[in-house]
Amino acid sequence: MQLFIFVFCAILQIGYSFVVTNATRVCIIGAGIGGLSTARYLKAEKINFTLIESTKYVGGTWRYDERVGKDENGIPIHTSMYKNLRTNLPKATMELHGFPMPEDTPTFPSWEVYYNYLKSYAEHFDLYKCIKFEHQAISVKKFENEWKVKYKHTPTGKEVEEKFDYVVVATGHHSKPYVPNFPGESLFKGNVIHSHDYRVPDPYKCKKVLIIGSGPSGMDISLEVELVAKRVIHSHHSKEDFNTPFPKHHIMKPDIKEFNETGVIFTDGTYEEIDDVIICTGYKYDYPFLDKNCGLNITRYSVTPVYRHLVNINQPTMMVMGLFFHACLPKALDAQARYATALIKGDFTLPSQDVMMREWQKKYDEIRSAGRPITHIHELGDEEDEYYAALSEESGIEKVPTVMFKIRLLDMEAMTDNLYTFRNFAYTVKDNDTFVRSVEVEEAPRIFPCAGDS
Ligand SMILES: Cc1cc2nc3c(=O)[nH]c(=O)nc-3n(C[C@H](O)[C@H](O)[C@H](O)COP(=O)(O)OP(=O)(O)OC[C@H]3O[C@@H](n4cnc5c(N)ncnc54)[C@H](O)[C@@H]3O)c2cc1C
Ligand SMILES: *[C@@H]1O[C@H](CO)[C@@H](O)[C@H](O)[C@H]1NC(C)=O
Ligand SMILES: *[C@@H]1O[C@H](CO)[C@@H](O)[C@H](O)[C@H]1NC(C)=O
Ligand SMILES: *[C@@H]1O[C@H](CO)[C@@H](O)[C@H](O)[C@H]1NC(C)=O
Ligand SMILES: *[C@@H]1O[C@H](CO)[C@@H](O)[C@H](O)[C@H]1NC(C)=O
Ligand SMILES: *[C@@H]1O[C@H](CO)[C@@H](O)[C@H](O)[C@H]1NC(C)=O
């Protein structure tokens, strides 16, 4: 079949093209930033869509929920937000297209301020009435030329099946914990959670806490736990130079060799007694509702093959939003939503499947030959600005200005330099290419009432 499509397209020299009609129907799954943005642009183009959202709320992971485990309808709590979270990107890089944040928004807002912004976004574009809340997608399957989407009304369990021409998957990927196996972990007597279930530092008062992982969650959570803990033992294998002047009771350790009943032996042979563990090893891509016939290969670190980190090459009427990391995520999601809308509207045509497949393979080979781990397949990183340029050149959407990428790089540099102070800066956008950074607030003194050496 694939060979047939390839030959067919090659002979006719055409790409994939779709004609939008009043009968064109789009299914959006998820009402986080990705789903809300897509709804906004489809609505503006008067393209018919159904947005299903399993919770009662918009904003996805940006809504804090003190509960862990399952919600009132038995659906696993989606959000990974914790109570004291402030963004790690400055507000300019998290603003959605043409919808400025209120003037008095701090440079690094709390989750609450940003969540309120997303709610006002949904209100402003009159999206609430377009959302089927408490409906969870349970199966997405291709059937001839249509998508059959089955979804469940979560309070009653009633299932509905609807047919669509396009499916836009916007369920995020910061919800399903990735937890490696640690030798001896079943012996350990203390309390162990994943950062997905971390809410407040209170349970760690005067405890010896092991934090595993040095990604954004591991670093951020370790800083708030050290304020209350007796000792923070931070295990990771990052080669990054952390210049942050950690206090004496926050110590770095290499990887875990094994747990026993009372603590952990690390790969350097040292032992630490531990009360509690917070596993901050990140999240995995997880789309349990996608049928095999969608043609996607989903691993914990990749969803392939996709064109522009978005279009399912085997079924180009399906898009999976927000697969990337190391980017101004809200800007990138907004750009994807505009690209998807332009595609559905017919403003541009995708290359043939064969061309998209070759492009994807090229990217895969580049990562391989550079000796980079294949877990980097969806990293934008240094290529973020090129990504925005490519989306715009192809689809005609307005480009995300280069200044956003530049701000993110300096912010990340400041973060690597000093985790305590990087949020003291303010970033003012001057034009599409330039910004000014200034010191907005001075560092507040940090006190550690419970800190101890042993
Ligand atoms: C702790 C934490 C801190 C972060 N900090 C930052 C930051 O400072 N800056 C930044 O830019 N990004 C940050 N992020 C990344 C964040 O994920 C993105 O900013 C953004 O929220 C992603 O939006 P999304 O729409 O892709 O997914 P989500 O926000 O996860 O939304 C997905 C939605 O889909 C719904 N859903 C899931 N499955 C189904 C289903 N089967 N059927 C129906 N609905 C479903 C969910 O209920 C949810 O509402 C952070 C993430 C976490 C976890
Ligand atoms: C859809 O119908 C509306 C109203 O009948 C019409 O104005 C619009 O042009 C139609 N759109 C398309 C894409 O056919
Ligand atoms: C969308 O399509 C459905 C099913 O064809 C139809 O009932 C509904 O009225 C349409 N909505 C809009 C806004 O066109
Ligand atoms: C765990 O291992 C350490 C280091 O070998 C040891 O000192 C400690 O007693 C062990 N704990 C138990 C309960 O065996
Ligand atoms: C799925 O992707 C992974 C990672 O790229 C790869 O190792 C694996 O072989 C792929 N599986 C299939 C069935 O294509
Ligand atoms: C900034 O970029 C946008 C989009 O590419 C463009 O429309 C606008 O004219 C640019 N502004 C300036 C001052 O160059």
UniProtKB/TrEMBL annotation:
Cofactor(s) recorded in Swiss-Prot or TrEMBL: FAD
Record bears the keyword Cytoplasm: no
Signal peptide location: 1-17
EC number per UniProt: 1.-.-.-
Claim: Zinc is one of the keywords in the record: no
Key words, A-Z: FAD, Flavoprotein, Monooxygenase, NADP, Oxidoreductase, Signal
Matching Pfam families: FMO-like
InterPro entries the UniProt entry points to: FAD/NAD-bd_sf, Flavin_mOase, Flavin_mOase-like, FMO-like
PANTHER family: DIMETHYLANILINE MONOOXYGENASE
Family according to the record: Belongs to the FMO family.
Protein name per UniProt: Flavin-containing monooxygenase
Annotated source species: Loxostege sticticalis
Lineage: Eukaryota, Metazoa, Ecdysozoa, Arthropoda, Hexapoda
